[in-house]
């Protein structure tokens, strides 16, 4: 017989590096969304986009990890960033391929 904890852990999805990819419950998503600016909310939750050639990360050359502003999951490594001349930061692979 499986315990509830065992059943819950088997339903959770994890990335190759061990990050929990289980979708956030709606209440937690709403709580986290309360920390976003209006522009961040429009982009992250309402399928918006930044105007090209104006984002603060376009010319960023700092080494590190680009993470989701809502939940903090790593999205891209600076090692995978390249200049695509599209007006948006571009990456050739996700953090956890």
How far the N terminus sits from the C terminus, by CA atoms, comes to 35 Å
What assembly state would you assign to the polypeptide chains in this entry?
single chain
Q: Which CATH class is shown?
A: Mainly Beta
Total strand segments: 4
Quickly count the helices.
3
Portion of residues within helices: 10-25%
Number of domains: 1
Model description:
The structure is a single chain. With 97 residues, the chain is an alpha+beta fold. It has a single domain (21-91), classed as Metal Binding Protein, Guanine Nucleotide Exchange Factor, Chain A, CATH 2.170.150. 25% of the residues lie in helices and 11% in strands. It is flat.
Features:
disordered N terminus, Metal Binding Protein, Guanine Nucleotide Exchange Factor, Chain A, 25% helix, 4 strands, two-stranded antiparallel ribbon, 97 residues, single chain, alpha+beta
Structure, briefly:
The protein is an alpha+beta fold.
Furnish the topology, listing elements before pairings:
Elements: H1 4-11, H2 26-33, H3 38-45, E1 65-67, E2 74-77, E3 81-82, E4 90-91
Antiparallel strand pairs: 1-2, 3-4
